[in-house]
Amino acid sequence: MGPKRNTVQKELVKRIVLESCDHPTAEEVYCRARQELASISLGTVYRILRDLVTAGEILEVHIPGKPLRFDRTTSSHAHFICSRCLRAYDVDVSIDSLVEEAEKDGFAPSGAQVTFFGVCDACK
């Protein structure tokens, strides 16, 4: 039963992130998952999220001093973090040109994250 149960848990966690527009934290994913599968543990959710990030199926969104958030969009884009509501928004800005500039300067970046901070339209 172990492998099947793990598959069910993994598919549930993956579906929750892929259906979420709000860049949920692991705790938020856990709370949503427990509504469908009460036996899932927080540790399992963390492990599955880490595995999904490693596999390139989802992204981590880093907000200084805050819990990691998870993003369903894996293409090159930036984020905007509202300093009032702490929501994370996708910003349709390609960061590929920034990576190219770093390469021109002799660096070999393995990835990049661009995050804007300020107040979102809803909180203004």
Output the radius of gyration.
16 Å
User: Based on helices, strands and strand pairing, what is the structural class?
Assistant: alpha+beta
CATH class of the largest domain: Mainly Alpha
* Element-by-element helix/strand order: HHHEEEEHE
Number of domains: 2
So what's the overall shape? globular
Q: List the strand order in the largest sheet.
A: 4-3-5
User: What's the CATH superfamily of the largest domain, by name?
Assistant: Winged helix-like DNA-binding domain superfamily/Winged helix DNA-binding domain
State the end-to-end CA separation: 51 Å
Largest beta-sheet characterization? 3 strands, mixed
Our count of helices gives 4
Q: Return residue spans where pLDDT drops below 50 for at least 5 consecutive residues.
A: none
Mean pLDDT: 91
Second CATH tier, the architecture of the largest domain: Orthogonal Bundle
What portion of residues is helical? 40-55%
Percentage of β-strand residues: 15-25%
| CATH topology tier name of the largest domain | Arc Repressor Mutant, subunit A
Overall strand count:
5
Describe it.
With 124 residues, the chain is of the alpha+beta class. It has 2 domains: 2-71, Arc Repressor Mutant, subunit A (Orthogonal Bundle), CATH 1.10.10.10; 78-118, Dna Ligase, domain 1, CATH 3.30.1490. Helices cover 40% and strands 15% of the residues. The protein contains 4 helices and 5 strands; from the N terminus they run H-H-H-E-E-E-E-H-E. The chain has helices at residues 2-18, 26-36, 42-54, 96-104; strands at 59-61, 69-71, 78-82, 88-91, 115-118. The strands form 2 sheets. The chain has a 3-stranded mixed sheet, with no helix packed on it. The protein has a two-stranded antiparallel ribbon with strand order 1-2. Strand 3 (78-82) and strand 4 form a beta hairpin. Helix 1 crosses helix 2 (26-36), helix 1 crosses helix 3 (42-54) and helix 2 (26-36) packs across helix 3. The longest helix has 17 residues, at 2-18. The mean pLDDT is 91.
